[in-house]
């Protein structure tokens, strides 16, 4: 089945920016029939932002050795 391509707004890129991979998947499934190129780009953006977030967390965790999870609180 062939769908007519209707260009969608660039505001769809905000979904993966704010919600990462989940937002990219949601945007992909909503606009995949109307604008398949933008749908794939939203999905790719969600994947890239997820990977960047993971790498950033690893780098920050390794580079700050004095950061403890217990915060010196005795309960």
State the total count of DSSP E strands.
0
Shape: elongated
Strand content: under 5%
* Helix fraction bin: 55-70%
Determine the number of helices (DSSP H or I, runs of at least 4 residues).
2
In angstroms, what separates the terminal alpha carbons? 63 Å
Sheet/helix structural class: mainly alpha
SSE sequence, one letter per element: HH
Q: Give the low-pLDDT segments.
A: none
Give a short account of the largest sheet. none
Averaged pLDDT: 87
The radius of gyration computed from the alpha-carbon positions, rounded to a whole number of angstroms, is 19 Å
The count of domains is 1
Quick synopsis:
The protein is built from two helices and no strands. With 75 residues, the protein is mostly helical.
Description of the molecule:
- By secondary structure, the chain is mainly alpha-helical.
- The chain has one domain.
- Helix content is 61%, strand content 0%.
- The protein contains 2 helices and no strands.
